[in-house]
Amino acid sequence: MMKVVVILGILLAPYALMHINAQEEVKVEIAEGSEKVDNGKFYVPPRITVPVGTTVVWKNFDDAAHTITSGTPTCVGECWGLDFDSGIMRLDEVYKFTFNKPRTYDYLCALHPWMIGKVKVLPEGASVEAEVSVTTDRTAYKLGDNVNVKGNVNPIITEQPVVIEVLNPGHAQFRSDTITVEDDGMFNYDFKLVGDLALPGSYTVRVTYSDVSTEITFVLEKPDKPRQKSPKLGEENEGGVADVRVAAKQVRDIVLIRVRNADDNASVYGITVQIPDSIIEAFKGPRDWSKPDTTSGEAVSSTSNDPIEPGEKAIFKLKIHADSMVINWTVYDDENNILDQGEVKPISFKGK
Questions:
Q1: How far apart are CA 273 and CA 295, in angstroms?
Q2: 274-287 burial: b if 16+ Cβ within 10 Å, else e
Q3: Is the dihedral of CA 320, 325, 328, 329 positive or negative?
Q4: What's the burial of 320, exposed, middle or buried (CB within 10 Å: 0-12/13-18/19+)?
């Protein structure tokens, strides 16, 4: 097992110096499918840094035959195999070579020269410059989007994970996770831009590997203003089988929806609220009404024993970051039949 002692860390920078102790063996795999030029993985990991005296062990996991041959694709013939050459390696065969001289060794497969690797051999007691890189799949996102974070570390430290922190525009911790590094030094992480802390603005992704850190930023754009033409209050109940009146007012990020059952017979047992192109961050109804999942632009709430009876009213409260919106609403009876539906635009109050 490779042991690492950090002797110098550079905060928030992609490089740091590490001292690595001597190790007996380091393993490298010849990946399945390596005979194909577009395979993506060939020698795994493709680059390693080891102290002098280390034995590197290559094993072929591909059905095709390969070689471990010192040299580069640009220098053929007599340049190949001067330092080491495995000869033909078939499936599951192993080749070992001990590096007793400090220097950098390039190598390739003599049968498939697009397969290249590198071994950097350090003098005894020397330090190695560690590297961490990170990217996101895009630089700008909308509320509810998935963010893909990927990167690479070198050298690979045995059993050392990558720590990923995501800070929102207010510098609050939006996500924090520990990720396993793959055999080729790559890491991959996904998360969604939802929840109370998903605020518009610039986000920071901080990746830490051992004591080495690097950062990248992306932007969460403000929600687009709804394009729907909002109805006038009092005109949103056309077409329903019951007479239910809905009005709304907004104070900053809190919206109050008043549902008044003006029907003579029907009772309201459920409600669906939809806000296009937005995320409902929190939703609360009367005491005995269900609390829905609030990770989308729709909230569904219902009750079995506390309906809105004829002549009664109820208040539903939701939290959403949007300056202007149109709310689509639908109410149901105890058998989930639609009683009424419509649209309402909240009256806005600035509040204190």
A1: 13
A2: bbebbbbbbbbbee
A3: positive
A4: buried
pLDDT in tens, 121-178: 988 877 666 778 788 889 999 988 999 998 888 777 777 899 999 999 989 999 999 9
- Tokens representing 73? 């694709």
**What residues contact 81, with CB distance under 8 A and at least 6 apart?**
69, 70, 71, 110
Quickly tell me which residue has 């580069």 as its tokens: 72
Average pLDDT value for residue range 264-287 = 87
Cis peptide before 200 (omega within 30 of 0): no
- Specify the pLDDT at position 15: 42
All residues at 6 or more sequence positions from 117 whose CB lies less than 8 Å from its CB, including other chains: 28, 42, 43, 46, 47, 106, 107, 108
How far the first Cα of the chain sits from its last, in Å, is 61
- The confidence score (pLDDT) of residue 242 equals 82
Tokens of 119: 């071994």
d(CA 212, CA 206): 10
Question: Which structural domains are found in the chain, ordered by start?
Answer: 23-123 (2.60.40.420), 132-220 (2.60.40.1930), 244-349 (2.60.40.2230)
Name the one residue in this structure whose structure tokens are 């080749």.
95
Which pairing describes strands 338-344 and 201-209: parallel, antiparallel, or unpaired?
A: unpaired
CB–CB of 121/103 below 8 Å?
yes
pTM: 0.43
Q: Which two tokens stand for residue 27?
A: 């393993």
The pLDDT tens digits for 200-229 are: 999 999 999 888 888 999 999 987 644 433
Sign of the torsion angle spanned by Cα atoms 36, 37, 40, 41: positive
- In this predicted structure, the answer to whether residue 42 has a pLDDT above a threshold of 70 is yes
Q: CB of 155 within 8 A of CB of 49?
A: yes
